[in-house]
Amino acid sequence: MAHLCEMQTQVTVKADTSKKHLPDKQDHKASLDSMLGGLEQELQDLGIATVPKGHCVSCWKPIAGKVIHALGQAWHPEHFVCAHCKKEIGSSPFFERSGLAYCPKDYHHLFSPRCAYCAAPILDKVLTAMNQTWHPEHFFCAHCGEVFGEEGMTQGGYKKTSRAFP
């Protein structure tokens, strides 16, 4: 095992025209876990205490570096991901639903009310009328096409004016 004070790097260059072996994710993960375990043991042997900042709720391994505290849990930054797209959230804004974290894009796509006119998620102001939800700019008169203002509408969906509509 290499000691911290004796670490050296050796580089050997070989001309290899055959297929290059790229370590898969599991090999890399096992190698990293082994290296971190070895370094932790060496630090303890030197009398340096290594106290984890918590245990990651995703992988249940100790957190030694950066930690994300969210949803009442501790996470490795790379393990705090959107429940839908699985992209890393890290310290970016997120939404919580049923104890799960969602990136803003997926949260709105999955859970925001939809406009009855355009079917897009409503991200800001919601207008509710006729048992449906609308973007305010998409709630307009069925006859003239003008957006309803403070005056409201008739029961048939027309803009209230001095003229009578059915």
From TrEMBL:
PROSITE patterns: LIM_DOMAIN_1 (PS00478), LIM_DOMAIN_2 (PS50023). Residues 54-113 form the LIM zinc-binding domain. Gene3D superfamilies: Cysteine Rich Protein (2.10.110.10). SMART domains: LIM. Keywords: Cell junction, Cytoplasm, LIM domain, Metal-binding, Repeat, Zinc. The keyword Ion transport does not apply. One of its GO terms (cellular component) is stress fiber. One of its GO terms (molecular function) is actin binding. GO terms for biological process: actin cytoskeleton organization; heart development; muscle structure development. It is found in: Cell junction; Cytoplasm. Pfam families: LIM. PANTHER family: LEUPAXIN, PDZ AND LIM DOMAIN PROTEIN ZASP. This is LIM zinc-binding domain-containing protein. It comes from Monodon monoceros.
